Amino acid sequence: MAGPFSNKIMKRYFTVLICIISCAMTSWSQNQKFIDALKENPARAAVNYQSYEFSETQLTEAPKGFKPFYISHYSRHGSRYHTSESYFRMCMPMMAKCDSLGILSEDGKAWYEDAKVVYDEHKGMFGMLTTLGCQEQDAIGNRIHERFPEVFSGRNGRTQVRNRSTRVQRSIMSMTSFNTAIAKKSPALDFSYAAGDKFRAYLNADPSDYRKLEKFGIQVEDSLKSLIDTDRVLKVLFKDTETAAQVIAEPYDFVQGVFIVSAISPNTDARPDMLKYFHQDDILAHWIINSNCFYAGYGNSAEMASETATIARPLIKDIVEKADEALRADSNLAADFRFGHDSGLLPLVATIAIEGMHEKWSAFQAHEHWSGSEFSPMASNLQMVFYTNKNGEILVKLLYNEKETTIPALKPEHGPYYDWSALRQYLLAL
Fold first, then answer.
1. How far apart are CA 44 and CA 41, in angstroms?
2. Longest dimension (CA), the chain
3. Is this model's pTM higher than 0.70 or not?
4. Where are the domains of the chain?
5. Average pLDDT, rounded, for the chain
6. Does domain 67-81+130-208+300-428 have CATH number 3.40.50.1240?
7. For residue 94, is pLDDT > 70?
8. Distance in angstroms (rounded) separating the CA atoms of residues 200 and 116
9. Per residue in 314-370, pLDDT tens?
């Protein structure tokens, strides 16, 4: 991107970028927590393409006398296929050409065969929810019912479960899978569903609202391209890299295509292990780029936090308004479930500033503090669970990806439980 804005940013962070490029790949001892996580599961380098991970955690008991009665929720859709053929086009025609020339290595042949299987499975399904995506949402729906059965009991006349989704198939299918799991256990509840552009203002902003963020994200990626050792990847895939270089006009784009095609494979039915052909340092490099770009585009970056907040405010307003409705004495609402995209969820939790998203870092340094794989996998979600007692006092607990979280800027009333009036005031002031 050209222009005064980009020049200003690049000059300001030139020293930082040099440091990142020269140091980030020197050792796997840096950012040990994140690096260990990547070693355990290299698919985490995919960040927003990573499938959902759940590990059971102990939930903090509510203060004596408090019971859950209402849940406000936003979820990204579950695991999906790539939204278009673009990533396949970045690498598959070149792999086909090199195959015809007989210059694929044994690893190259194996990767190419797996890629063709993944590509074939994508045809006619681009952007759609995968089988795994349905399973993820089904499991989350089951767990939310198991954890908070009082919400879905129908007691006190709270029988309405209200659902809203973007018009996109993967979000609608996620909504269906999630609610079907709950309905099987509580069939007497009244489930209502709606999906469409009518809800776009708060579920997923208009693409024009993301232009500055996307341009900045591209700028961050461009500044980090040199982290990718394209030669090393080419040596894995080809036995004649000189001839391959004549076929591959843009090595960085080609390697990105290879990685992103590989990264989506765990979400498919075939699920071949295609990341095994990448060196640990390559996995780290992709994670750095993907985490920083995602933080630039949707996170709480020092450069773009105000833009992110603008996107999040309609959703925050909707959360407060629907909670106010649920808290009326005559309300029959048990839950408000919303289904959308990472571009809706991440700005929300960044602006609310939950733990891990509460500090503003430069997008060029985000990987030093933040892992996109922890915050933006497929099916990532925010749950706000409302509790009350006989005195009518209201407490709220927040869970992100089904783990309790806090808002460091706001003092809780008890453990992770917030007084609703204080939380409401905090949200409306954002």
1. 6
2. 77
3. yes
4. 4-48+83-126+209-298, 67-81+130-208+300-428
5. 92
6. yes
7. yes
8. 36
9. 999 999 999 999 999 999 999 999 999 999 999 999 999 999 999 999 999 999 999
